[in-house]
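To fix ideas, we close by showing one paired sequence and structure record:
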Amino acid sequence: MSKTFFLPLGGTGEIGMNLNLYGYKEEKKEEWLMVDCGVTFSQSGLPGIDLQMADPNFIIKRKKNLLAVILTHAHEDHIGAMPYIWPHLKCPIYTTKFTAALLEEKFNEHEIEFKDSLVIIEEKEEFSIGSFTIKALGLSHSIPEMNALIIKTPRLNIFHTGDWKMDEDPIVGGAFDDDKSKELDKLNIDYLICDSTNSIVPGKSGSESKVKDSLIEIISKIDGRIFLSTFASNVARLTSVAEAAAINDRQVVLSGRGMHKIVNAAKKTGYFNGVPDFVDEEDAGYLPSDKALILCTGSQGEFRAALSKIARDEHRNLYAEEGDTVIFSSKMIPGNEYGILRLQNLFAKKGVNVITEKDSFVHVSGHPCKDELINMFNLIKPKYMIPVHGEHRHLRENANLANRCNIDSMVIENGDLLTLDKDGFGDLKKIENGRVYKDGKIILPDFESPSSDRSKLSFSGIIIISLQIQNNKIKSRPLVSSVGVPEYDELGIKLTDLIQERISNILKSKNLNNSFEKRIKNAITKEINYIWGKKPFVEVIIHYN
C-alpha cells in the first residue's frame, strides 16, 4: 500500500527559513521532494550568528531518494539556504527564470557549480518527477514569479500555496482576478498546505497599486531629499517607488548591495521595463536635493545596511540633513523593534522627518489576511488543511478559520512527519530536527554553537589568570587580566589586586596538584560574585617549567 508524507523542517512554528518535504512510498520505492530551502536572520540572544536555517540531516541521510528541490519564489526565507544545504544534496533544482537569476548569483558567489542541475519552469507548466506530478500556478505576491504548487501523487492531490495574497491590481505578476478564482474553483484538492503569516490580521492585505498612488501623493508634498527603505526583494515596491518618483520629477538612487542584486536580476529577466534608469550612488551628489530619492536597504535597522550608515554619517557617498525625509515602506518585523527605533531616533536627532506605515499608507503585506484566507478556502474547498509559514498563534488561527469553513485542519510543527491519507490525517511521528547556524564562514548545528557563551560574556565578562609553576612552586606573581569586568569595587579597590591576593592565599598550600586549578577558578568566581553580584567566566592558564 502506498503512503504520502508531509514533513516541515523549517517555517512551521516560526517566520522564515522555510523547508518542506513531501514523500511517497510504496513497496520498495521511497521518493522525496523538497519545497523551498530558506534562511532566517539572526535574533537577539545569538551574538555572532549571521543566519539560521533548518537542519537538513533527515533528507541528507536519504539524498539518494531526493528527486528534486522546487523553489516557489526568490525571497531569502525560501532560497537563502541553498548555497549551504544544496551542495550536500546535488539534486535537480526546479524554479522560474527570475528565481534562477538570483540563485545563480548566490551560487557563483560561493563558487558552486550547479547549471547542469537547473530546470526552468513556467507558470501553469505541468511536469513529472518520479511518482509526483507537479503544476506551477502563479499567485500574487511582492516578488515576481511566485508559484503555488499542485502536487499529485497516485492517491492524493495537494495544493502548496507558498507565499501569496489576493491582489486584483498588482504591480508585478498576475492579478488575482475572476479567471484566477475560476481556475482555483475547478481544482480537486485533498490537502491544502497554507501560508499563515497574517492569519491573525482582520480584513485584506491591500493592493500594491494603492501603495503606489499613496507614494505619489506623499512624495509630491516633500521638499528636500527623500530616503526610502523597503525590503530589497520587494520588486513590486521598488517598481512603485520608481514610478512615483518619476511622476514627481525625482530620480532614484540605488544604495545597498541587496538593492543592486535584486535590480540586476529583475532587469536580466525582463522586469523594470519602462522604468527610468536608476542613478548610481556615486553620482547622487550631482542631483539637487529636491530631485533625489534614495532607495536603500536597511528597513529593519540592520547595522551595516545603507540606511544605518547614512544615519551615522558613515556612508561614503550619501548624507542626510535637517529638512530631509526618511520613509520606512515596510513593516516592523518582531524582534527588530529596537534596531529600527534606534535608527529612527538617529534621524530625528538630525531634524530629518520620519514616515512609517503607522503615519501614512506606505506599505501593504505580501501575505493573506483573514478575509483572503477564507476566500481561498471557499474557492479550493480542500478536504483537509495544514497551516504552515507562521508562528504558533498564526498556525492556530489559520486552523480556526479553516474549521469555520467546515475544513478539517491539523496544527503541526517542524519535525512532525505526518502521513496524508485519502480519508484524513494519518500517523504522526516526531523526527529529530533542529537548526543550523552560519557563524562567519562556519556552518554548525545549533547545539554546537558558542553563541550562548558569547551571550554570557556580554553579560558578565571574563577574567584570565596566568600562572607559572616550577618544581611544584609558583615562579612569579600571577598575571590577571579581564574584559568586561569593572576595574574597581565600590570601595575603590582594584579588582585585579583582590584577585591576586586571593590566588596567593590559595597557592600557600603545599599541594599544587591537578585540582588546584579548579580551586582557583571556583574561589575567584565566588569572590567576584560577592563583590560585583555577577559571575564572570574565569579561565586559569598554567605554564609548567
About this structure: The chain has a mean pLDDT of 92. The two ends are 72 Å apart (CA to CA).
